[in-house]
Design brief:
It is built from 8 helices and 9 strands. It is α/β, with parallel strands linked by helices. The structure holds guanosine-5'-monophosphate. The site of guanosine-5'-monophosphate (5GP) has 11 residues, from strand 5 and strand 6.
């Protein structure tokens, strides 16, 4: 079945199950491609170039920036991060969809860029942004504590960030609450099916 290629921007505060949801989406939809960001930081642990990130030198990153190759970019903790535009254009041209996993600030930059594109641009035609919300801040605190990977201080920082991000959820076209992973995934699939004309 021929479907409309989507350019999906997904944001969620940490602890909202975003990575799991993206993994499930990629398993469910073989025509959705995950956008691999570029970064100037060193790979960590088992991270692989071209899978987790495109690991670039500062010089190469600067060169791409000068060529306006990034749809958006940001500096985080002294390292540069960016989303290349060309792979998104290519994936959509092939009739597939692209999913971008990005924070609220990055998503706002992408939204601005897309808004400025002509109405006939495939990125604008296929654009959709979705915010995954936790059921409540208390529930998010509970999940982060149970995960057991963060110190109390880090949890507080993540919660403060989450509150800031949730306050901007209204900027998104769609908001899906992750109260239950299976239900949330089903809602996301229904949304993608409806938007891509799968049903
Ligand atoms: P990490 O180095 O821990 O993988 O990521 C650090 C931060 O960079 C995270 O907040 C992550 O969301 C952000 N990040 C990763 N890729 C991109 C990107 O392509 N664009 C922007 N703006 N931020 C990114």
């Amino acid at each position: 079945m021929k479907t409309k290629p989507l350019f999906i921007v997904l944001s969620a505060p940490s602890g909202c199950g975003k990575s799991t949801l993206i993994d499930l989406l990629l398993q469910e939809y073989h025509d959705i491609v995950y956008s691999i960001s570029c970064t100037t930081r060193e790979p960590r642990g088992a991270e692989e170039d071209g899978i987790d990130y495109h690991f670039l030198s500062k010089e190469r990153f600067a060169q791409l920036l000068a060529e306006d190759a990034f749809l958006e970019h940001a500096e985080v903790h002294g390292n540069c991060y960016g989303t290349l535009k060309a792979p998104i254009v290519e994936v959509l041209a092939e009739g597939n969809s692209m999913i971008l996993d990005i924070d609220v600030q990055g998503a706002a930059k992408v939204r601005e860029r897309v808004r400025a594109l002509p109405n006939t641009d495939p990125l604008k035609i296929g654009y959709v942004d979705i915010f995954i919300s936790p059921p409540s801040i208390e529930e998010l605190r509970d999940r982060l504590e149970k995960r057991g990977t963060d110190s109390a201080q880090t949890i507080e920082r993540r919660l403060a960030n989450a509150q800031g991000e949730i306050a901007r959820a209204g900027e998104y076209m769609y908001r899906v609450t992750n109260d239950d992973l299976t239900v949330c995934f089903k809602r996301l699939c229904d949304l993608i099916d409806a938007l891509s004309g799968r049903m």
